[in-house]
Amino acid sequence: MTSSAANVTRLLLDWRNGDQHALDALMPLVYDELRTIAKRYMSRERSGHTLQTGALINEAYLRLVDKQDVVWQNRTHFFAIAARIMRNLLVDHARAKQMAKRGGGALQVSLNEALVGGDPEVTVDLLALDQALSRLSEVDERKCRIIELRFFGGLSAEETAEALGLSEITIKREWLKARAWLFRELSGAEAVHGEEE
Amino acid sequence: MNPSRWQKIDRLLDAAMDRPPSERAAFLLEACEGDNDLRHEVESLLDAHDRSGTFIEQSPSSSMAAELLGESGERDPQRMIGRTLGHYQLRSMLGAGGMGEVYAAKDLNLGREVAVKVLPPHLAAHPEALSRFRREAMAVAALSHPNILAIHDFGTETGVTYAVMELLKGETLRDRIIRSPLPWREAVDICLAIADGLSSTHAKGIIHRDIKPENIFLTESGGVKILDFGIARVVSGDSYQRETLLNDQIQTTRPGTLMGTIGYMSPEQVRGEIADAPSDIFSLGCMLAEMLTGKKPFLRSTAAETMAAILRDELPELSLTEKAAPADLDRVIRKCLRKNPAERYQSAEDLAIDLKDLISNTATIMHQLPQPGQRAEARISSRKPAWIVAIIALVVALSLAGLAAWRYFSTPADITSIAVMPFVNADADPEIEYLCDGVTEQVIGALSQVPKMRVLAKSTVARYKDKPLDPLTIGRELRVMAVLMGNLRRAGNDMAVSAELVNVADGSLLWKDQYLIPLTDVASTQSVIIRAISSRLGLTSTSDQQQRLDRNSSRNSESYQLYLKGVYFIQQESEEDGMKGVKLLEDAIRQDPTNAMAYAGLAQGYFNLSNVYMPPAVAMPKARAAAGKALELDSTLADAHAILAVVKSHYDYDWIAAETSYRRALELNPNNAFAHNMYGYFLTAMGRTEEAIVEYRISAELDPLSPSTTVAWPYYFAPSPKRRFDKAAHELRQLIRYNPDFPAAHGLLGLVLAEQKNYDESVKELRMALKIADSPWFLAGIGYVQGRSGKPDDADQTLTALKLREKDDHVQTLSFAYLYAGLDDSAQAIDWLEKAFESHEEEVILINVDPKFDRLRGDPRFQALVQKMRFGF
Predict the structure, then answer these.
(1) What does the pLDDT look like over B205-227, one tens digit per residue?
(2) Tell me: the pLDDT tens digits for B327-379?
(3) Which residue is closest to B60 within chain A, CA to CA?
(4) Which of B332, B308, B307 is nearest to B318 (CA)?
(5) Cα angle A185, A188, A194; round to 5
(6) Which terminus of chain A, N or C, has less C-beta within 10 A?
């Protein structure tokens, strides 16, 4: 066990016990570890094999969390943080690309412009998704978590279930409902926006 | 949409999805009971579900986040130059530090020169911190006040987060003061400009909290700018509580800044309390005094004394060089520097009014009144023409409390704090285990002698022993600027020593070397290493210090090795190890009777045994003799002075002599955490609570991972008006969270809770303490609480148990006094107290501040005892 593992385990516990500062302290630790692993992979495997985001998070978890002292809530919180980091990273990236396109300056984000993803059919406006997700989290934190873990964190349904301590069936159902909600928000169809906030 | 509404929708959605599509409409019509909005909502979600296809089924190119991560991270500053962030093209680097790099850049849209501060990646990936930073940067930016550094923009690009600020040309007020004190009029003008700026931030609830000459910039064109709202935070509603907590953490754990800025701290900041607008006024007052005299008004030779002076001392007569200075100036400064914040100017505006009055009252002799914030041109040119125009760009606001630990340092010479990791026994060779510990300790000891260097105590770094170490993580955890790591390995008849010094700011290697030292000459290891580090860090050590360093290690290798082994054992917990350590140290002295360090170690060894395993009447005189012998051989040994001080306070009850020795020890080695801790204990006993808190805080700063440095002690053991059981309980709970196995924390918490009349929890904590460490002290505590809570029968049982313990253990006499005090049996309690006094038990010195004895205070016998101890309060 490394000292940072002890530290991360302790902070996870604190966070679970309601200490919000613990989260502030955790973020950079987890970020650093994710970055270290990612860098190592990228220097080792210059071409061909790519590092999957989900695999990266799993490895970081194994390295950073003290298994002696593990409770599933720790696992949940750890994965939540990692997925949140990935979400921020991707959204920032999308925002930067968009700003570059517009010559910068404009902070207002136009939906549907920043596009990420190779397959045109599954092209998603990450910035709009990010915003919709933030709205969703206000009424349904769990669904937001699931989307973060699966979509941004690249975890499978099974891994997500394990990370959250929920059954796979629940995850799948929640996922479908959250996805429907987000799809409606992003496609702008028939949404009953009148009662938003 | 509110959550309960959403739950309803969610449930209906579930139910509808469970039904075949054809039945859904009918189901919803019935289930929604006429609530059409509800029905439409669910239907639109079902519709979205049907149309969503593979929407977000695929992660954004499943490897993209990982790749972005891999690309972010350490940046080569050279590669940053020429790069464009947003629409800012980086031109050249202006400076770098732990908080990131600052570049001169060109705004490609507007064509103007700006400064771009690039945040380090670990901050950039920290959404909570980032949003706080953003919020505060925006708050400051929204002010657009001429006396506050302007923030133009803020952005993130592929993991690089940056803030864009105005580019300033000029110098800091520090540079200006160094040249000479300022004419009063110029000083008052600058002060007015700052007050102006502060009143606008204060109005928005932003307190600066770090006003000092380094953070005031004088521009070439005569402007005054406040920089670096570094530890400022937005004061609002519920963030208040968090903020205090955070500040407490800063006060106790944040190094460098505390020391560096100490001269400008307000009393409430020193005490770790909430610092509001009047706190900034206090700092401003300090600065005004310094501008006029060239001296920091409360600066003393050590941090502890400076903190004590801030809390206690009145401002001395200002020796102004100028005759023309208005007499009222002194009054204004004094009003800024009132100890009680309520007596200061309550707002920067009030201060500005008085300053303007000063000017207008003398205006008849001035030709032209400069506007506040704008110093007259004539004054500018009267500055030395040769002054260097420094282009400095600034960092604003890093409100990231914990992360803001590192200040600028661009060259190794600026390293002012260091953690020496335990030297690793590379081959796990049991024969040299003690050497690893010994070398670690010696290196710490020797580095502690370097002026202005903060070196973490061994008990803190010892936590990292035998753990895979990442120096950057450790450095950040311990908030030091550099980490020294090394290992030892036997190579034939030699010892191979390798060591490296890592700069925590950027992970760069400051120094690395290997030595082959004959086993017969290991004594020279530490001085070789220290010399190399000192020269690499550009540390100057006087020949006197160099000599001390050499003297500290015995020339006799065998004696030195015995010494190292001895010191290793006296630090272990058990009696057996302690005795073994003492014996080894005695052997070391036999080998080399001039080994002063061995005598000092022996003194420490006896002190460690005293009161726990050995009656003070046996151990303390031996400790005194050994310390005296050590000082005879080397009068500059801080460790020996510290032990001597402890003997004088804890055993002789000779307060005046003790204080002299404590001060001498701290003068010789301001980094001696043990001395700070013991001095804090002494001050606690003297009822000098505020000063005690300062010592405990410094001790915690030097030894952050050692649980015994908690300020809960002075909060609990204090003259009754100064007691703060709530704070003590808070501190202890925090401590227990991180050190759940520290028995004294549970024990003291139990006693604190008893004073709060929370007897059930109190006993629970004391039992926990007893479970962890089976010490009679905790048993006595339980008995006390039982008596106090009206359970005399239980207390009697505990008393019997305690008496039984006497057969096998050294039970402190004082324990019985506690128990009888709980039972309100004054006669017995005082009998035992007198016995404790006769046998010189160390905790007797606390009786005048101990809440457990409050009910005895009216008793003439108790008063007589207190008289005998000559507390003087």
Answers:
(1) 788 888 888 889 888 878 898 87
(2) 788 889 999 999 999 999 999 999 998 998 888 776 543 333 333 333 333 23
(3) A117
(4) B332
(5) 80
(6) C
Q: Does B267 score more than 90 pLDDT?
A: no
The interface predicted TM-score of the complex, written ipTM, equals 0.79
Partner-chain residue, chosen from A1, A3, A34, that has the shortest CB–CB distance to B464:
A3
Please tell me which residue of chain A has the smallest CA distance to B127: A88
CATH topology assigned to domain B169-405 = Transferase(Phosphotransferase); domain 1 (1.10.510)
Cβ–Cβ < 8 Å for B28, B34: no
pLDDT confidence of residue A72: 57
Q: CA angle at residue B140 from B139 to B141, to 5 degrees? A: 90
Q: Which residues 403-462 on chain B approach chain A with CB closer than 8 angstroms?
A: 403
Nearest alpha carbon to residue B826 among B787, B794, B791: B787
Amino acid sitting at position B612: V
- Distance from C-alpha of A74 to C-alpha of A90, rounded to nearest angstrom: 24
Q: How far is A67 from chain B (nearest CA, A)?
A: 16
Interval B278-309: pLDDT, tens:
999 999 999 999 998 888 888 876 667 777 88
* Closest residue in A to B246 (Cα–Cα): A21
Closest by CA to B153, choosing from B182, B214, B110, is B110
Catalytic annotation, residues of B: 210
pLDDT of residue B581: 92
A2 vs B contacts (CB less than 8 Å)? 467-468, 470
Give the residue from B126, B705, B730 with the most A CB atoms within 10 Å of its CB, the best one to mutate.
B126
Query: In angstroms, rounded to a whole number, what is the distance separating the alpha carbons of residues A144 and B632?
Result: 71
**Scanning every residue of chain B, which has its alpha carbon at the shortest distance from the alpha carbon of A96?**
B157
pLDDT on residue B821: 96
B73 and A39 within 8 Å at the Cβ level: the answer is yes
Cβ–Cβ under 8 Å, residues B126 and B435: no
Is the CB of A184 less than 8 angstroms away from the CB of B68? no
Domain assignments of chain B as residue spans, ordered by start? 3-51, 169-405, 412-553
Q: Is the torsion defined by CA of B114, B120, B121, B127 positive or negative?
A: negative
Top-level CATH class of B412-553? alpha beta
8 Å CB contact of B52 and A180: yes
Encoded tokens for B831:
């009998």
Are β-strands B454-455 and B482-491 bridged in parallel, bridged antiparallel, or unpaired?
unpaired
- For residues B665 and B645, the answer to whether their CB atoms sit within 8 Å is yes
The CA distances from residue A111 to A125, B60, B163, B478, B724, in Å, are 7, 17, 25, 44, 55
Decide if B68 and A2 are in contact by the 8 Å CB cutoff. Answer: no
